[in-house]
Structure formats: C-alpha cells, structure tokens
Amino acid sequence: SQQGEEDPQALSIQEGENATMNCSYKTSINNLQWYRQNSGRGLVHLILIRSNEREKHSGRLRVTLDTSKKSSSLLITASRAADTASYFCATHDSWGKLQFGAGTQVVVTP
Amino acid sequence: DAMVIQNPRYQVTQFGKPVTLSCSQTLNHNVMYWYQQKSSQAPKLLFHYYDKDFNNEADTPDNFQSRRPNTSFCFLDIRSPGLGDAAMYLCATSFPWVAGKNNEQFFGPGTRLTVL
After folding, report:
1. Which chain A residue has the Cα nearest residue B90?
2. 3-class DSSP state of A100
C-alpha cells in the first residue's frame, strides 16, 4: 500500500515563483527522500533527509521533516521552466525499501 | 559514466505473449529493484535482489518473474501479459541499506510496455 500521500496533486506556477509540495506518511521511517521524474523517464534522486533531521538544503531545494506530524515538505525556490516534472516523496523503512507517494505534477511556465 | 540502462525503451507485445525486459548497471550495486508505474501513479515495487537473494513483494502477481544472472544484469519476465500490465517498468539499483548511510536509489530511464 502507498505510504506517502502528496499534496497538491498538481501545481502550476510561473518562472521565478516558489513551488511548495507536501508529503504525509503513516509509519515510522529511517529517512525520507524526494525524487523527480521528467515525463516518460526514470526517477532522479534529489535529496534525502534522515529521521533525526528537521531541515536540509541543496541548491534551490529546501526540505523539511516533522516526524511528530509524519510530514515533509519540498520547496523549490526561484523556479525555472526546466523544473517542470513530477516530484515524488519516498519513505525508507527499516527493511531498506522505498515506498513512494502518488506525486505532485509541477508545471512551470515561462 | 556509471549508470542504469534499460532495454528496450519501448516494448509492444500481444496479449498473452511472453515478454522480457532487461536492465544493466555499471554502478556495481548489490541491490537491484523492479518497479511498475502506471500512468499518474506512484512506482510500485515488484521485487528486488540483494546480490543473488530474490525478494518478492507479497502482492506481486505470479505472472511476473525475475532473473539476475550476475551483478550487472537483471531481467523482468512477464509470462502472460494482460492489458492491465501495460505500464512503465523501472529498474533501480542501490547499495544495501546501512543505518546512518545515504540509501538513494539510481533509476534507469524505464521501459514502456504496451499490450495489444
């Protein structure tokens, strides 16, 4: 069964704006990861945040994790047309498996 | 560059006709995964190999089988494809999970399977 639920399902913004998407999960995790998928392609790992971390940055990406609420958010700052993609959160359990959320489809218009 | 390669990128098969999808990796990762992803849905893990140890997900249909002849290659066999098996099939690799270490997975570009 799906572990993560993502919100919103779709997001449309203009270049230069920030994009925020949220992920909620149900069970305890070792870490939470965000992946990006361009249309018809494989997934690309963006960032990993461990269960004992609260915030992490990588370039224009900022991820937060609230284990008490079982939720995470991904912020993309100063978005570009090339950021158009689907973004998936994935929780990593103690067995080493990833369970993916349904994804947020982001469209950035020039 | 080290990578995960999937062939073919697009595969068309007929209802009930066996099909094999292939994945190879140059990352020398111990673990290889097969996911099924239907349109606008999350990738769903079918099974994974830790070296030669095969691990099937409980809800993976018997119609799906896998082979890993060596570290670099892994195959997904669909014995009798049905219309519901049309999907993107993603191969991924990683190092084994170790507490405190990063455990990202590296994905291939996927094979899109069409069943006629």
Report:
1. A42
2. strand
User: In this complex, do B42 and A101 lie within 8 Å of one another by their Cβ atoms?
Assistant: yes
Residue of B3, B6, B104, B113 to mutate for A, most A C-beta atoms under 10 A:
B104
Question: In 10 A of CB B86, how many CB atoms?
Answer: 16
Which neighbouring-strand residues pair with A73? A22, A64
> Residue B115 carries which side chain, given as an amino acid letter?
V
Query: Token pair 């993107």 is at which residue?
Result: B88
Partner-chain contact A102 B42, CB within 8 Å: yes
Which pLDDT tens digit goes with each residue over A15-46?
Answer: 999 999 999 999 888 889 999 999 888 899 99
The 10 Å Cβ neighbour count of residue B58 is 4
* Strand A104-109 versus strand B19-25 pairing type: unpaired
DSSP 8-class letter at B116: -
Residue type for position B80: S
A76-110 residue pLDDT tens: 999 999 999 999 999 987 777 889 999 999 999 99
Q: What is the DSSP letter of B101?
A: S
Whether A88 and chain B come into contact, CB under 8 Å, resolves to yes
Tokens of B4: 């995960």
